[in-house]
Fold:
Amino acid sequence: MKQPVLTLLYEGPEEYKQSIENFFFERGYLLGVGTPVYVYIAHDKNLYAWKVTYQEKAIDNFSNLSSNISLLFDELKNIFEKKTTPEYSIIYDPITNSINIQKGKNKPYIVEHKRNVYPLIINGQTKNLREGFVTVEGMTVYLGKPMEITYSENFFKDIYGIFGKYKFDGTKVFEDHLNSYFTYPETPYYIDSEKVISMHYKYEKGKLQQNQIPIIDVYKNYVFYSDGTLENIDKLWQYKFHYTPVDWFFSENLLLVSFINNNVILFDLSRRRILFEKFFKDVWGVGLTKDSIFIASDNSLIELDIKKFRTKNTYEIIKGQDFVIYNDLKFVYGNVLKPRYKGIYKIKDTYYYMDKKIKDYILSYIWNGNFYIVTKEGTWRFNK
Structure:
């Protein structure tokens, strides 16, 4: 007998999702691509609100709340009649990558194995650790197989900024192999032989000065201030945008900025002039690729041609959807760390760079073609 297949659309506390799925399996229904069924659950103290939509039926208890979740399952039984449950089901073993058929199971399931102990080799030294998340010098990995990690070339413990031969150790700036140093109050964006630049301070000509306007980014030879001022690092020229920047994206000789008034500007850094300016509704993010401008506006991701500025595509953004990804350009709804071009995003209390989990993130910057992430334990270096 062929079993009916449902597409379960569940919205509610995670703790009840498994019970809802088990209900359908026990009633003889498979879950996959089939007839949609929407189940909504809300829980507040000792009260439950729920709603079920299936084909032409839509029922809820919004005006007569329940004190027991079991009343929802009673209603589901009235909607979904009991089917003949299968005698056999598919069993998948992820260790052997094999599929078998087993009697007495009413749904496909995965063989659960005990967590194994795997060798983790860190810079030539072997540790045998139980399977799970392991943090190695600020970087978190999942130990689910024998692994080897070499971090000496890419991680600098207790160093909180690397700029060629200049480093910052949390309290002072020093040059490799020299005893000379000077104290500095915060993590820098930029260091060279003449200056140190950070959000609230600059060190120039042997003097520490507090910035009148906070610096929000340093990209190559460009310094960007929170009031919309852009200048080159030697102060040979300056350009003042009229509004406060909200999100921005540096790429080669271009700067794309969204402002607090919802204007978006594309600025040519080499010629120091505006190439494009337009108002968009509720802008919350911008991005650049070689051929396109991307503007996250309200519930849409708008793609413009970078030369003619015509709309190429409009992508719908669904509330609650975590990611909108276009090639290497990532939009994270509400969780992006600005500026977006650095590729750092946050989910709950965890920071990520691409698919890498970053522990105790402080800031990030680009220097001589490499990408640096500063954490509370030290600095990571990646190829950009």
